């Protein structure tokens, strides 16, 4: 299956009934037969797209299914690498597991594993991640940036900035970043990021960015125990959102900001991140495995630690903790 032709067909058919797409033109441009184009149209129909035909002029899109299949996402993509290689599964325990396998087998930079449903989605600190079928974006992005293993944790912050930029561009909601990996709206969790590493002692082989975004859930779609702390874009906006459009926008910004981080270092990401952070300048309660204490959040350091000012005036950099405002 050539997802390039399919996603290009989709993109052009979206121009509507007044601008139908000529099958012959696509066939000529992509060096495939007219019958092959017709087969792609039939494939799209079997995936749930409603396609109209105007005799002697071509095809146009009437309606789209709610799917995160590669061609649905790729029609909106503006990246060079991210999302160009994509594996979509209906259901799996966790896209992180599949992504680790694919990365070990040499999957190229920017490969995406995306699922409609995860049955054992995992969050940070081995917590479960609720991943209801067809309601969110459950994806793992295999990145291969030129970074040292010490620079890898900052990729969580790079991803957070990319995600808030995408949300801002496509919705009216105002997202905030909660260190290190949560994106909140009105104080409730909308998105989580799980960063995992494959590395030699001095070289990153792959950084796998697991991104879980609550998109079209209603409150009752969440397990009871997280209903008071979770939200979705649909709940916040009062209307459903296109998952493929959002996934593509996240990948666009992710590619952009990872490239910025690799080229210019963490400084520009730090400025962006701090502008979205919900805790800077505020009193926070910090819970680590060892203890719980209060301090004032100051900012993030060059290596991605949260810097807090303790009551005796000393500054502490935190690598891993739960933060409560
Ligand atoms: C967290 O907030 O603790 C991180 C949640 C990360 C969830 C995503 S969903 C896609 C990928 N697959 C997983 O099993 N987890 C990540």
Automatic annotation (TrEMBL):
Biological function: Acts both as a biotin--[acetyl-CoA-carboxylase] ligase and a repressor.
List of residues binding biotin: 118, 189
Gene (name only): birA
Annotated protein name in UniProt: Bifunctional ligase/repressor BirA
Reaction(s) this enzyme catalyzes, per UniProt: biotin + L-lysyl-[protein] + ATP = N(6)-biotinyl-L-lysyl-[protein] + AMP + diphosphate + H(+)
NCBIfam families given in the database record: birA_ligase
Pfam short name (any one): BPL_C
InterPro entries: aa-tRNA-synth_II/BPL/LPL, Bifunct_BirA, Biotin_CoA_COase_ligase, BPL_C, BPL_LPL_catalytic, HTH_11, Transcriptional_repressor_C, WH-like_DNA-bd_sf
Transcription as UniProt keyword: yes
A molecular function GO annotation: biotin--[biotin carboxyl-carrier protein] ligase activity
Coiled-coil residues: none
Listed EC numbers: 6.3.4.15
Originating organism: Sporosarcina jeotgali
Domain BPL/LPL catalytic: 71-262
Family per record: Belongs to the biotin--protein ligase family.
Lineage of origin: Bacteria, Bacillati, Bacillota, Bacilli, Bacillales
Gene3D superfamilies (UniProt xref): 2.30.30.100, Bira Bifunctional Protein, Domain 2, Winged helix-like DNA-binding domain superfamily/Winged helix DNA-binding domain
Keywords annotated in UniProt: ATP-binding, Biotin, DNA-binding, Ligase, Nucleotide-binding, Repressor, Transcription, Transcription regulation
CDD domains: BPL (cd16442)
Top EC class of this enzyme: ligase
DNA-binding region: 23-42
């Amino acid at each position: 299956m050539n997802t390039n032709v399919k996603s290009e067909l989709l993109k052009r058919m979206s121009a509507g009934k007044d601008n139908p797409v000529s099958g012959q033109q696509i066939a000529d441009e992509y060096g495939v037969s007219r019958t092959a184009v017709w087969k792609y149209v039939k494939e799209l129909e079997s995936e749930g797209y409603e396609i109209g035909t105007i005799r002697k002029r071509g095809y146009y899109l009437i309606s789209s299914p709610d799917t995160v299949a590669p061609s649905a996402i790729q029609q909106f993509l503006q990246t060079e690498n991210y999302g160009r290689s994509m594996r979509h599964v209906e259901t799996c325990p966790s896209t992180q597991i599949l992504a680790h396998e694919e990365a070990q087998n040499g999957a190229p930079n920017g490969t995406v594993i995306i699922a409609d449903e995860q049955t054992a989605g995992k969050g940070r600190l081995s917590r479960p991640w609720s991943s209801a079928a067809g309601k969110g974006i459950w994806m793992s992005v295999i990145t291969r940036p030129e970074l040292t293993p010490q620079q890898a944790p900052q990729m969580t912050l790079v991803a957070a900035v990319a995600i808030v930029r995408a949300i801002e561009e496509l919705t009216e909601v105002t997202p905030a970043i909660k260190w290190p990996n949560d994106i909140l709206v009105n104080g409730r969790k909308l998105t989580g990021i799980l960063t995992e590493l494959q590395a030699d002692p001095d070289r990153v082989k792959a950084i796998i960015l697991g991104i879980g975004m609550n998109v079209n859930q209603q409150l009752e779609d969440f397990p009871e125990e997280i209903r008071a702390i979770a939200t979705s874009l649909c709940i916040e906006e009062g209307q459903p959102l296109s998952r493929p459009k959002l996934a593509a926008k996240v990948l666009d910004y992710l590619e952009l900001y990872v490239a910025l981080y690799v080229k210019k270092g963490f400084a520009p990401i730090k400025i962006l991140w701090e502008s979205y952070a919900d805790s800077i300048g505020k009193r926070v309660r910090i819970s680590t495995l060892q203890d719980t204490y209060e301090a004032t959040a100051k900012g993030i350091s060059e290596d991605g630690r949260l810097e807090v000012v303790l009551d005796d005036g000393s500054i502490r950099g935190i690598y891993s903790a739960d933060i409560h405002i």
